[in-house]
Amino acid sequence: MEARITLVTLCVDDLERAVQFYRDGLGFATEGIIGQQFPHGAAAFFDLDNGLRLGLWPRASLAHDSGLPVGPRSTTNFCLAHNVDSEEEVDEVMAQAALAGGTVVKRAQPTFWGGYGGYFQDPDGHLWEVAFNPELLPAD
């Protein structure tokens, strides 16, 4: 298997609310909800940088498709990270997420590793880290 990920899917309880958060609140581009004509098919996709896509899919649909029961949410099993170019940009993104309906769980502050960062959760509890890491600056 090649070490290549092309899609990260977040499972959500309310697809319309999740699309609104990512599209309207964070400004991620999407065609909106597609696949509604299929049972358990409704989903939304967002194009990210470097060919990566973010998918949103109802938790019940993943459970149905995988054959596993819907399990409890856990906010500490998985975290997405968004690296930015400055401490100021960290603060801007954190404020944008909060204004969009996200919950700031750790205000941005200096980190033990020499950077600056904080954490927010989307409306479904998915954890995002927003960080300025001088060693891992995003590509232009």
From TrEMBL:
Q: Which residues form the VOC domain?
A: 4-133
Segments traversing the membrane: none
The record ties this protein, via SUPFAM superfamilies, to: Glyoxalase/Bleomycin resistance protein/Dihydroxybiphenyl dioxygenase (SSF54593)
CDD domains annotated for this entry? Answer: VOC_like
User: What is any Pfam family matched here?
Assistant: Glyoxalase
Which InterPro entries does the annotation name? Glyas_Bleomycin-R_OHBP_Dase, Glyas_Fos-R_dOase_dom, VOC_core
The protein depicted here goes by the name VOC family protein
Q: Which species is listed as the source? A: Ramlibacter ginsenosidimutans
